[in-house]
Amino acid sequence: MISAMSGLRTSERMTMVGKKKLLVGLLVVPLLVLSACTSANSGGQSRTAAGGGVCPYKFALITHGDNGNFWSVVYKGAKNAAADLGCTLTETYGSQTQGQAQPDDNAENQQIQNAINAHVDGIAVSDHDPSVMNSTLAQASQAGIPVVLLNAGCDDQDIAAAKAITCVGQPENLAGQKAGQRFQQEKATNVLCVIHQSGQNLLDRCNGIAQALGVGNTCKTGNAPATGPACTELILSTPNAASNPQQAIGQVSAYLQGHAGVNAVMTLNNAIGQALVVAKPAHVRIATFDLDSDVQNDLQANPPTMDFAVDQQQYLQGYLPINFLYLYRKHEGNSVGGGTTVASGPLLVDRTNIKKVAAAIAAGDD
Amino acid sequence: MTAHPTPVAASVPPAGPDERLATTSRLTRALRRPALGALLGAVVIFVVFSLTDQQHLWLTQTGFQSWAQQASFYGIMAVPVGLLMIGGEFDLSTGGMTGFTAIITALLVGQAHWNAWAAIVVTFAVAALIGLVNGLVVVKSKLPSFIVTLATYFVVRGLSIGGVLLVNHGSTNVGISGTEHPGLASAKAVFGSTFAGNPGLANGYSTEILWFVAVTLVAVWVLARTTYGNWIFASGGDEVAARNVGVPVARTKISLFVTTSMASALVGVISFTQTSNAVSEQGVGNEFYYIIAAVVGGCLLTGGYGSVVGAALGACIIGMAFQGVIYSGWDSSWDFTFVGAILFLAVGVNTLIYRRATRARR
Lengths: 366, 362
What we know:
heterodimer, A: alpha/beta, seven-stranded mixed beta sheet, elongated, B: mainly alpha, two-stranded antiparallel sheet, 4 strands, 70% helix, 2% strand, globular
């Protein structure tokens, strides 16, 4: 089970950049210089050391993400945790810089090396490319620096190979299973799982649905049967489906027109879920991974136009690792997680709990 | 012994009419038109899908609306991009611009609560300005437009991410807040609505399709019937020669960049009015599909040759490819392969026809 990529790839690619960073970015100044000037515009209110604790530790946060919708919440979680404990946090904004389509794993690996050289007291890191980063992270523990993974690298082999305490993230297969159980309860068991880009993490989600519905270990491709229970994958081929949801939905609508038996659609990206809600296909329940303001509105509509959403609660992916590092340092190697993943999600959000979750999102705590 | 042929006799061409006066058959002339290959390609693809369609929807209104809307999304841009390519330049900012312009309209309507029509006018004005900058920089600096517009692409992409986060409460997804949105309903009716709903197609056809047809017709008329159309061919064919005979090459090229930018704004406005929503990343990467549509339709990458109808047909081929693979019920994990094979088939048919026609000329 590999969940080597975060659940919210679109948001990861949405890079928030202040004017300053934009200018610098255009001049193609090396990454480290970039990271030095980004913390100035990170948006969240700065907490005073509310916990009042005396924390002599300096922790480093390194990710493959940017400071867009998704990752800004992770960073806020980590900063709040450091402030609550009174620790020092050095954040290195993600290896994915403005204009890049993909994160730069070698750059992130170098950032990890730099943190080791700087003798920080702990590293919270997204293990985005285990084949590159595990060995570097293992050097950290040899140097006596504890490591907690977050968001990516959340499987037991990678946790072991990186010699990390644990990983905080959403186990994708578990998230799929929870969604599948929900469909089961609602008796909407002929599920179409819409895959918008390649990645084992997305397949794991669909497979989880199939497992919960009791139709085997994997979600099938091809034609959906007339009646459920069934899980069928639809792999979209329109370009950049997540950023062009309307074109992607053209394919989903066409599929639903030809397969009237399908009664539930699971999208793995919030923008695509929202576009499907706008397209109003008949006789299907719509659910999606990840929340944004549109999805919140859909869940709150009367009647709800979206059945439920799967929230991976990325605030916890920032907040918990800092606490785990602190506990390890403060209390003689206390290790959370037993070498396996600590799940930050899934939290199924529907009309019954959306108000609470929306309030947390508005405060930037989800 | 036969008589020695005289040197003079040897150099005399075989009896026959002067080749410059030779008439070419109507068929050959038709085959030489750049759009014809694309038309045949499109027909072949259409027939293939009508045979492979498992859902019996391809030949219905449902199937037609489905691929025509997909085609319109690419076609509204492929046509002006085709014009620009005939004029000898590229615009790589088009994809990013469709997202950027959608974001501008969304912010003005959804967050600043402007009248939707005022927002749309401003959006088009901003797009025109960016196109003007693109054109001026390309013409004045003599840098390849490939590079100049790539830079523009990065700048607008940064603006639609960074700028949006600054003014939109840290979210890259701009929706509309509140209930009062003056002009939005009428703007939606014009840009992002549907028409001709009927028992066979409850939701009707997307208005986007009408825009695609309109843009194509205007472009066909401009290219075929106006002096400006000739200037486009001349500027792309041989810039120096064109200038020597008095074609205002710089002005022609700049206006073409303005046109592609404003077409991007049209797509941006259409997509915003369809969903009342805009996302920062929208449209990124689509610039290549616009260029692909134009090339599938017979526009040369080197400029000076091509057809607007061809570019529109190229967009239809792309639209049919994306929707046809779904109706055919092929395993969706192979869809990319099918789409690739179909595009190759279309271009193959196109090229074969064109080669035959031009060989016949010699």
